[in-house]
Amino acid sequence: MKRLLGMEMIEKGLLEEMGLELNLKPWATDGGAHFWEVSKTAFRSVYDDQPNAHKKFMEKLDACIRNHDKEIEKMCNFHHQGFVDAITELLKVRTDAEKLKVQVTDTNRRFQDAGKEVIVQTEDIIRCRIQQRNITTVVEKLQLCLPVLEMYSKLKEQMSAKRYYSALKTMEQLENVYFPRVSQYRFCQLMIENLPKLREDIKEISMSDLKDFLESIRKHSDKIGETAMKQAQQQKLFSVILQKQNNVKFGKTVYINDRIPEERNEIVLKPVFEEEDENEEEVLTVQDLVDFSPVYRCLHIYSVLGDEETFENYYRKQRKKQARLVLQPQSNMHETVDGYRRYFTQIVGFFVVEDHILHVTQGLVTRAYTDELWNMALSKIIAVLRAHSSYCTDPDLVLELKNLIVIFADTLQGYGFPVNRLFDLLFEIRDQYNETLLKKWAGVFRDIFEEDNYSPIPIVNEEEYKTVISKFPFQDPDLEKQSFPKKLPMSQSVPHIYIQVKEFIYASLKFSESLHRSSTEIDDMLRKSTNLLLTRTLSSCLLNLIKKPHIGLTELVQIIINTTHLEQACKYLEDFITNITNISQETVHTTRLYGLSTFKDARHAAEGEIYTKLNQKIDEFVQLADYDWTMSEPDGRASGYLMDLINFLRSIFQVFTHLPTNSNDHAAMSGKVAQTACMSACQHLSTSLMQMLLDSELKQISMGAVQQFNLDVIQCELFASSEPVPGFQGDTLQLAFIDLRQLLDLFMVWDWSTYLADYGQPASKYLRVNPNTALTLLEKIKDTSKKNNIFAQFRKNDRDKQKLIETVVKQLRSLVNGMSQHT
């Protein structure tokens, strides 16, 4: 070190003498490495900067070395004596130190030997104290941890036992009370980390249970609804029976006709007995059919977890989906009543469950939610029923549907749901029910008409007479006085029609039951539906019957008589409806039956058909006419077709006059029909004969043909004068041929001067002869005369006659032209 220090000082001095600056740090800081690095730099600068620098450097270096040696020697001389004294004292102390060392070693050995046993005992004591302290600490910590472990063990047991609500409560206690005490332990942290997972597991399990519950109630909705509807039906039927018993007790009766109470009792009581036989066991409730614990449990669990809103939304969403499925009917639901029953029971079951949830839980289902759901369902139900009921063509099925709707409405009304719209729908279905009834009874009426023989009902004895009278309200004192056998004026169809009208009223009345309507409204319904039956269905059947080709004139007359008796029976039908509803006919708003006009219209149609058929028969005979319009002389007798026609008319009118006339009304009616038919036939025959003469295709007529035609008209006049139908006054019937008679007389007598002179006079002999008609016939005769008398111009008489014809033709044409100008 000294050497290094010296070298450093020498180097520094040399560099300073040479005019070089060198920043040297203490050698001790960087050591020799730094010194030599600096030295290299200094030496390099010495050799590189000045010429002969090496020599100068060596000289200076030697001088520095000598100076430093002198300084070192001085310094050593100055401290040498103190160093010697210190060494002397140190030698003296070494002897005493060795002695002290020996003593201390001996003392230490003795202490060591003496303290070995104490050390062993002390270590035992220390170890015991440490163990005691540790035990105390462990006991304290265990006392603190044991409740936590016990609660956690309890939590596991609750989870295993599926007591999830209790498990959640246990979790709350662990988190709020027990975990804060032992939060520093690792097992506590593990437990804390495991609790959220357990909560999620509980949520998933409870949600799974809820899904199973929802699936279960979806499957059991029909059973729930069926039970609820049966209970509602039993309650309603019990009320009806109780009301009937009270009416009997207080002497009240609603129905006078014997059949009605019997039938109504059959309608009302039969289901009650069936239900009593089937349901003698205890009445089941919705709680007996469905286990609601999954809902309660899940609701409590989500409430504890603070996620009640999520649960409510999920429940309502799923139930709305189920509602849509329940409200979706099967495509063939309208085919059977079972399809409708299954549809209704599922809906009732759904809303019974919702009503139960509403009353046993708070907030899960609200009244506003159920009302909204019911309104949605009600609109869908009405649309479905309106669509499917339109396919029903069987009135019995429509009636069963109505009964189901009433029970359905009464059941849900008992649970607080508004059902007024359903009863409004029933009024629409009632119209459809009436339509199906009308179609059914149209078939019944057609069958009755097909089976009728259209002849008066023969009565052999009193028993038969009473049987008919019990079915149809017929009264005729003159007929009652007659002895058996005798005949009733109407045919078998009349009592059958009357019975079927009453049956229709019964059927219509069945639909009006349980609609919560007053007797006045029911009376109005019955009368309107009966009016439809009479004015539309029965009237249509009668008109179709009258138009059928196989219905002859005799049958048409019998139909007229039948309609007369049915018309008279309308007042008994009104009394019948009055007995049912207890609404007097004198009530201001009571609807009257339109049977009178219905049967009058049918009777007029039958009369018109008689006239039409008779005229058609006349046309058939007239078409058989085969006149030789060019004959020169007549045959001397009437045409065969006309004699056959007259014989036919005589037989027909003889049948009319021999119809039963057991009463003045029947006699007047048959006489009127016969007279009108006879007059119509004669007029039609006269018109047909006139048209035959004036036919545009007939170009020429000889006087011989006119004379032959005159013979036929004479036979017609003889028929009219023979009074084929009694009751005509004077020659009224002969007037039907007056046009033909005057026209033929004019040509037969050739009395043109009188005709032309008296034309237009009220007392004219040929007042009924139209100039146009006379002109047409005269031109046909003129053409014939020209053709048959080629050489007429060579005979004076024939020339004069031809000139006369030409003159008459000119005058007739002037009359026709005058008439047209006047017109």
Automatic annotation (TrEMBL):
<keyword id="KW-0268">Exocytosis</keyword>
<feature type="domain" description="Exocyst complex subunit EXOC6/Sec15 C-terminal">
    <location>
        <begin position="422"/>
        <end position="780"/>
    </location>
</feature>
<dbReference type="InterPro" id="IPR007225">
    <property type="entry name" value="EXOC6/Sec15"/>
</dbReference>
<dbReference type="Pfam" id="PF20651">
    <property type="entry name" value="EXOC6_Sec15_N"/>
</dbReference>
<protein>
    <recommendedName>
        <fullName>Exocyst complex component</fullName>
    </recommendedName>
</protein>
<keyword id="KW-0813">Transport</keyword>
<dbReference type="InterPro" id="IPR042045">
    <property type="entry name" value="EXOC6/Sec15_C_dom1"/>
</dbReference>
<dbReference type="InterPro" id="IPR046361">
    <property type="entry name" value="EXOC6/Sec15_C"/>
</dbReference>
<dbReference type="InterPro" id="IPR048359">
    <property type="entry name" value="EXOC6_Sec15_N"/>
</dbReference>
<dbReference type="InterPro" id="IPR042044">
    <property type="entry name" value="EXOC6PINT-1/Sec15/Tip20_C_dom2"/>
</dbReference>
<dbReference type="Pfam" id="PF04091">
    <property type="entry name" value="Sec15_C"/>
</dbReference>
<comment type="similarity">
    <text>Belongs to the SEC15 family.</text>
</comment>
<feature type="domain" description="Exocyst complex component EXOC6/Sec15 N-terminal">
    <location>
        <begin position="60"/>
        <end position="229"/>
    </location>
</feature>
<comment type="function">
    <text>Component of the exocyst complex involved in the docking of exocytic vesicles with fusion sites on the plasma membrane.</text>
</comment>
